[in-house]
Amino acid sequence: MAALSTLCSTGVVRSQLLRWAATSFHTSAALEAARKGTRAKAEAKKKASKKETVKREFIPLKKRLELKQTGGAFPQRVEDHLKNPSDNVWFARFYKQQVYTVEQAVAMHRETHHPTQLDLPDSLLHTEIDLDMSTDKTNRFIDDFYNVIRLPHDFNTEQERTILVVARSEDVQEKAIQMGATHAAGHEIIKQAQTGEINLRDYDHFIAETDILPDFVAVRGLIRKRFPSVRNGTAGIDVLALLERFTKGIEYHTAKDKYHHDYATIRVPFGRLNMPSEQLEENLSALLKDVDKQKPNKKSNDLITRAIILCPPVKRYFKINHGLYLQSEKPIKVAAAV
């Protein structure tokens, strides 16, 4: 004990004891707080632990209730996060849909509709087109539209539509009836409509000569958006040429989703199974281009998002690459708003 006290009296031993005491009896928190960067690390950790606040878009009460009924699920399948199948057998829900050519899709439909199977070799081929109805402005959507288009190759569409032709010449009126018009009349149709003798609501389309349009304005309130105009191809000098598009063409119109106004579909026939595949592809190409013409100027993203080919009564469908048939130049719109 005496020896230890003698050693402690020396400066060397005293400094060693003090160093040992400092490293043995301090608390680590006191030293950590004094280290450079400790406070910065703590603040960074605190920020990382906080949840990011995402600004929620205002949704009206009525739409919130509607979305609640459907579970808020978007009707179109989103495949951006899915991979392409790497094998010849796969679970369809976990991979992207396979893309076929029009010729391949038609060939597979012909197999199921063969006389040895369903025995429907001349069935109508339909295409269902998915549309993105949003615009560059928030909560602004494209209005529903429709059009009647004459495809390159005619076929029996089984579509029924009522057409009223207004022309001055009785000879033109007779030819219009022979071509398939439901009714044809002259200037007298205006008074008949005003007195209620003829109900204009019974007709789907109106075709008129341009020189009659000023007088036909008197009944514009009865037909509204269906009023003939040169822009949508329902008014002109030769009404018989315009009528041919309506008697031999196909009519398509958009069907918006009830709860998701930025999504709509078009389902329309474009040919029959017994037609050559080249003609079917030309018809489909003309149809897709005509639909794409309705894209407004204030829309930067694509209007058409998907196109499939189906053939009732079989529910199976085949996806095609619709981008191959769309033109890049800005076309002239001819469809009418619903």
TrEMBL record:
Q: Can the keyword Ribonucleoprotein be found in this entry's annotation?
A: yes
Q: Name one Pfam family in it.
A: Ribosomal_L1
InterPro entries, from UniProt? Ribosomal_uL1-like (IPR023674), Ribosomal_uL1/biogenesis (IPR028364), Ribosomal_uL1_3-a/b-sand (IPR016095)
Name of the molecule in the record: 39S ribosomal protein L1, mitochondrial
State the GO CC annotations. ribonucleoprotein complex; ribosome
In terms of CDD domains, this protein maps to: Ribosomal_L1
* Taxonomy, superkingdom: Eukaryota
Keywords of the record: Ribonucleoprotein, Ribosomal protein
Q: Which SUPFAM superfamilies match?
A: Ribosomal protein L1
Which family does the entry's similarity section mention? Belongs to the universal ribosomal protein uL1 family.
